[in-house]
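assembly run, all chains below
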Amino acid sequence: MGALTDRVTEIGPAVGRLLRTRSTVHLAALLMGSVIALLVVSPLLWLFLRAGAVDLTRAAELVFAPRTFEIGGRSIALVVATTLASVAMGVPLAVLTARTDLPAKRFFTVVIALPLVVPSYIGAFAFVSAFGRHGELTSVVGLELPRIDGFLGAVLVITLYTYPYVFLTTRAALRSMDASLVEAARSLDASPVDAFRRVTFPQIRPAISAGALLVALYALSDFGTPAFMGVSVFTSAIYTEYEAFNVGYAALLSIQLLTLAGVILYIESKTGQAHGETERHHGTPIPLGRWRYPAMAVVGLLGAVTVLLPVGLFTLWVLRGTGGAVPSLAFQPQHAVNSVTFALLAALTASAMALPVAYLGARGTSRIARVLERGTYVGFAVPGIVIGLALVFLGSTTVPWLYRTVPLLVFAYVVRFLPQAVGTTRSAIVQFDNQVAEAARTLNAGPWRTFRQVILPGIAPGVVAGGTLVFLTTMKELPATLMLQPIGRDTLVTIVWAAHESLYYEYAALPALILIVVSGLSMAVLLSQEENGF
Amino acid sequence: MVDETTSPDRTIETAGQSTERTWTRRRVLGTAGAALATGISGCLGSGSDDPFESDSPQGAPIDGEGITWDDLGDLEGELIVYSGRTRDQIDPLFAKLEETYPDFSIASDYASNEAQLNSLTEEGDATPADVFYTQSSGALAALKEAGLARDLPTDVVDAVPESKRDPDGQWTGASGRVRAVQFNTETWTRDELPTDIFAYAEDERFAGELSTRPNSGTFRSFIVAMLELEGEARTREWVRALLEDQDVTLYSSGSQQAEAVANGDVSVGLGNQYYAARIIGNRPDAPLDVTFTQDDPGGLFNVSGTAILEDASKPNLAAEFVRHILAVEGQAFFVETNGEYPVVDGVDYDGPLPSLAELEPPTFDLNALGDLEPAIDLLREEGMTV
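ok done. output:
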C-alpha cells in the first residue's frame, strides 16, 4: 500500500506538468491555426463586397431562374458521380501499392498518382482529340472509337485526373496505420474482405473521406472540363457573368456555389470522424500471387490512358516541330525554373501552415475551431478566377508593394490549395497515437523536441502527401497565376495557355511535356522521402 | 492619399454618361477601397518617370498622311501593357519597337480580354498598367464606362475614322476584322451559301449542319450588334430558330469548332475567320473555307485597340506608343502578320480577304459592345450556352 502511495505521489506532479504544458502548446496551436484559417478565408470577404453591390432585381432573376436549378442539379450529379467513381478507383489502388507485394511498387505509385499533374482541361483536350470518328487514336487503331463527350465524358475525365486525391490520402493512411490489427483479425479466421471492412476501413475512413472531399470540391469548381465536353454546370454561369464584365453577379453565383460546398463539407465532417488511435506498425505485405500480373496490367493500362495519351499526343506535336512562327511562345528553361520555384514555395508554405490548422480540426474541441478548419476549404471550392480576382483587388489596394510579386502569388496558391495539405495532415494527426507524445513529454522532452522527434515523424506521410498535392496542383494552376504572376515571369503553364489560346498547339507540346516530366520526377523524389519517413 | 479623396469626383467627370448602375458600383468600390487601402497606393503613380512632358506629339502629329516611325518621337523607358491580344498577334510588333528603340522596353502581361478588364477594374487607381491593349472593342468600351480610360491626344483621335474608335476619344481601334462563316468545301460551294445571316436560321438546308461558339467574346458582340441593329424580337427569333429548327451544335472552343467543320462533323460554322486560317495553315488540303455575310450583323466589323489608363504612370510615353501603332509600320504589321484590316485611312488593305467596301459591314457606335448584359441574358433565357 505504502509503495503504491509513493508511486502515485511521484506520478502526480508529472501528470500535472504534462497537463499544464500540453494545454499551453495546445492553446498556441489553436491560436496559430485560427489566425492562419482567418487569413486564408479573408479573400472571400471580397465576394460579399462585390455581391452586395449588384442590382437586386437582376440578381433575383439570376439566382431563381429555372436554369440555375437545372445547372445546379447537374453540378450536384457531376460531383456525386465523380466522387463515387474516384473512391472506387483510389482506394483499391492505394491498398494495392501500400499493402501488397506488387513488384516495382514505387514506379507504379508514381504512375497511379501521375494523372494529378495533367491539367484536366489538357486531359479533356487529349481525350477529345484521340477518340471519336476523326480521333488520332482512331486512325492509329483503325477501329472507330466512341466519342467521349457530354455528362459521362466529363465524369470520366474528371475522375481519371482527380482520383489520385483519394489514392494519395488513403495510401498515406494505410502506411501509417497499425497493420498488426489486420493480422490479428486474419489469424482469427476473418476473410480478407471482412478484415478490410471491419478493421482497416474504419481506420482509413477519415483519409478516404478527406480525399473524396477534394475530388468533390474540385468537380464542383472545375469549368474547363465540363465546358470542353459541352456540359453546362454551375461554373458555366459564373464564367458567363465574369466574361460579360459582371463581376458582382459572378461573385453572387460563387456564394451560391459556396453553399453547395458547405453542404459537401458538412457531409464530409459526418463521415470523416476519427476512429481510435493506434501505434504504427507495418505488417507483412499481402501476397498477390498470380494476381500480380493482372494488377500490374490494370495499373499500366490506367497510366497509358491517363498519362501516355496526352504525352503521346504532345510528343507527336514536338516531333512535328513548331516551325518557329511565334518566337515569343518558344520554350525557355526559365519557364520551368519559375514553375518549380513557385510550386516548391507554395508546397512548403502550405505544409507548414497546414500543421496548426489540421491540429485545430483534429484536436480542437470547440465548434468554432472545427468551423475555422473547415473554412479553409472554401478556397478550393470556388473557381480559380474568383480567388484570383479577389486577390487582385485586395493585393493592389491593401499591399501594393506585394502586388505582382512572388509572395502574393504564393499566398494565392496557399489560399487555393491549403485544404489539400490540411486534409492529409489532419487524418495523420487523427491517426497518431497521442499517448506516444505524452510519454515523450513525461520523459522531460520539451514541446519542440517532442514535436520534432516524435510527432512529426509519426505524421510525416500525411504531411508529405499534402505537400506533394500542393506542389503538383500549383505546377498546373492557371487562372491565379495569370492574374498575379510578376509581369513577364512566365511559367510552363502560362506558355501552354498562351499557345493554346493563339491556336499554336505545337508550342504547347514541349512545355506541357516538361510539366508532366518535372512533376513526375518531383513526385518520385517526394514519395521516396516518404519511404524514409523523413 | 490625395487620389482617394478625389477619385469619386474624377469618376463623375470622366464617365459623364455612365449609367446609374455603374456609378453605384463605382461608389461602393471606392468606399471599400478607401476603407482597405493603406494609403500607399496614393503615393505611387506620380508619373515622375515619364520621359515626356506632355502627351502632345513628340515628333510629327499622327493625323497627317503616311506618317512613319521616323517622323515620330523616339520611345524610351519601360511601358507596362496589359494585353488581351494573344502573343502571336502583337508580340512581333512589340519586338520590332524594342529593336528600333534600344532604350525602350515593353513589359507585357497576357490574359484574356475579360480577365484583363476585370483585373483593371479591381486594381482601380492602384493599377501598375499604362496601356490596355485588347482583342476587341467591347472591353475598351467597358473600361471607358468604368471611368478608367483617359482622353487620347487630339491628333490620335483625328487619325482614325469615328466608326473605328470611341466617338469621345478615350480609346481607339488599332486593326479591324469581320466575323465569318466557315464551311466544309466537300459539302458546300461558296455560291450555295447565303450572304444574309437570317437565311442560316430559316433555310431548311442548314438543319443539323450549323455550329457556333456561344461563349466567345465575338459571338456575344455579334448578338449585341444584332440587338442594336435588328431589335430584340428578331434576335430572339434568330437564336430560337437556330436552336429549335436547325439543331445547332454548340462548341466551347473556337479551334474545336473549326476542326469539326473541317472534319465534316458539322458543315457550317459561324465563327472567326482566323480559326479556319490556322487550320488551313497546318493542313493546306483541309476542306475548309470561309465566306461572309453582307451588310448585316453576321459580318460584324470589330476592332482590336488600345486605351491609355487614367492612372497610368507614363501617360505621355503611352500616347507616343499609340501613335507608333497607328503609323504606317504598325498598320502594315496588322495586315501582313494578322491578316486584319487597317483602321487608318490612307493605309490600303491588300490581303486575301474581300475588301471592306465589298462586305459593307454595318456601322454603329462600337461602345455598344461594352454592355453585354442584354445579350447574355437573352442567350441564357433561350438556352444557348455552353
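Chain B touches chain A through 67 residues (CB under 8 Å).

The CA atoms of residues 271 and 310 of chain B lie 34 Å apart.

not gonna interpret more than that til we talk
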